[in-house]
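Postdoc handover notes: sequence design on the structure in folder B. Input tokens:
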């Protein structure tokens, strides 16, 4: 039977013996029957979440030349800023601008495999313009990385596997990526009402799980059930 609503899972219930079993049952349903769900009571302070939203908006308000100082094409890591309309998904322009960050890694050695270029330091905006951006996002990445690692164990348990079942698929110092995205209103772009456009086209993320923080009133992802 097709789902009718997106489940909301209270993560605090996963850490209490009396409620963990029911939580794992709800998580299994959300994973197997829906594929999307909300998480409440994540343990991340609301003040930090609000700082993340504020600093993200301030970044996109920077002058164009300051954002381009950390442009993605400056490094081989695919970390950094991409300007509006600079990406294409399924042969159509993605109307968004974004900055990609990750858990920090040193620059790879010249003898390292080519794919190690993806593991590199972040490009940070000029602290003279955004002094709080780096400390706020480093804290948020660290806390979300811990949440993601812990939640992967819960996914395993929800599937009746040992909590460590997925550990062998990840490096001990695994990379966690974070993307800060701005999707302009179509009216801002001069797109007429009724004309098809996209913030980003249909795609699949490459990681096991993706966590999204809705930072504005704009509509985000949509989930389609089997009934359409």
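Designed sequence:
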């Amino acid at each position: 039977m097709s789902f009718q609503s997106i489940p909301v899972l209270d993560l605090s219930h996963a850490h209490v013996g009396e409620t963990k079993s029911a939580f794992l049952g709800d998580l299994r349903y959300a994973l197997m029957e829906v594929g999307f769900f909300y998480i409440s009571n994540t343990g991340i302070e609301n003040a930090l979440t609000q700082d993340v939203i504020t600093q993200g908006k301030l970044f996109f308000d920077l002058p164009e030349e300051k954002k381009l100082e950390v442009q993605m094409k400056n490094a081989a890591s695919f970390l950094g800023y991409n300007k509006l309309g600079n990406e294409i998904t399924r042969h159509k322009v993605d109307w968004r601008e974004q900055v990609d960050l990750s858990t920090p890694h040193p620059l790879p050695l010249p003898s390292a495999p080519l794919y190690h270029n993806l593991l590199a330091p972040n490009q940070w905006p000029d602290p003279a313009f955004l002094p709080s951006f780096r400390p706020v996002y480093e804290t948020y990445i660290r806390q979300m990385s811990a949440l993601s690692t812990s939640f992967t164990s819960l996914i395993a348990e929800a599937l009746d596997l040992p909590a460590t079942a997925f550990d062998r698929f990840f490096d001990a110092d695994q990379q966690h990526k974070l993307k800060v995205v701005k999707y302009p209103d179509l009216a801002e772009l001069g797109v007429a009402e009724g004309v098809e456009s996209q913030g980003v086209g249909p795609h699949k993320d490459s990681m096991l799980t993706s966590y999204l923080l809705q930072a504005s009133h704009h509509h985000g992802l949509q989930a389609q059930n089997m009934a359409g």
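Context for whoever picks this up: The two ends are 12 Å apart (CA to CA). Don't rerun without checking with the PI first.
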